[in-house]
Amino acid sequence: MPETVTNSRDYFREYLSYVRVEKGLASNSLIAYRTDLEKLKEWSEKNGLNPLTLTRNDLREWLIDLSGKRLSENSKRRLLSSLRGFYKFLIFEGHIKENPAENLDSPQKSSYLPKFLNQAEVELLFSQPDVSTETGLRDRAILELMYSSGLRVSEAVNIQTRDIDLDGGVLTCTGKGSKTRKVPVGASAVEWVKSYLSLRRKQESIAVENLFVTPAGRPVNRQMIHAFIKGYAQKCGLEDVSPHTLRHSFATHLIQNRADIRSVQQMLGHADISTTQIYTHITDAHLKKSYEKFHPRSKA
């Protein structure tokens, strides 16, 4: 079983020591590499992931998140160099067998479009939990709420029962930088959360206020949500699906249906509109693909 982020050895420090001693890396370059790897470590911890077990898709998700920060071309090249060097070091030391950073390109918005599910795929994924069981009902409620409100996985696990107004269809969640925002909750999510709550309230032993808990009454964590989403996706033949895929799907479907981008920005909790604008690239690419497929004069 892989070590968790919190109890793992400090492989980042070991790598920096290696490039300083073995590679003779200059002090300024060493500082820059450290900054890049700290960003990766912070993102991994925030999403309940272990840097040693990140996949190429995970790294793409991270690069997408960074794409709204207007990095210079030099910063992008250095960041990718830091990644590749770090994972080559892990392979050399025998900690991992494959390099997830191999063949990664610079995080341009035009090439790093977030993966999203179409409506049929959403329905297929959501049909996987066995809602006749307590855990299955909880999982369905989590899926519905994350997609309905565009939640990050860290936001979903921290929702308290008092944070959601089911009658009003509004959720108050806490995002990055401890900033709170109000987001709408769709009718389908409301009904599934109500069904789950009716079962949850029968458990008198629950002492926490977290909305989503385990059968033992403990709060669910990010790793649990990552694991069950991956499991349900594999069960129905969907590839590279993560909790963030639901957030991407939420935003993409809103933009595709002509939602105002400023409203989407507010619902996602993006500080910078440029981060939200990546979803217009998705819809542009989607429309172009449909045009090329179906228009009789789309090709010479």
How is the topology of this model organized?
Elements: H1 11-21, H2 27-46, H3 56-66, H4 73-92, H5 119-126, H6 134-149, H7 153-157, E1 164-165, E2 170-174, E3 180-184, H8 187-200, H9 222-235, H10 243-256, H11 261-268, H12 273-276, H13 278-294
What's the CATH topology label of the largest domain?
Answer: hpI Integrase, Chain A
- C-alpha termini separation: 54 Å
Question: CATH homologous superfamily name of the largest domain?
Answer: Intergrase catalytic core
What is the level 1 CATH name of the largest domain? Answer: Mainly Alpha
Query: What proportion strand?
Result: under 5%
Output the strand order for the largest sheet: 1-2-3
Radius of gyration: 21 Å
Identify low-pLDDT runs. Answer: 1-7
- Enumerate how many helices there are, as a single number: 13
Helix content: 40-55%
CATH architecture descriptor of the largest domain: Orthogonal Bundle
Helix and strand element order: HHHHHHHEEEHHHHHH
Residue-averaged pLDDT: 85
Number of strands: 3
Number of domains: 2
* Global shape: globular
Largest sheet: 3 strands, antiparallel
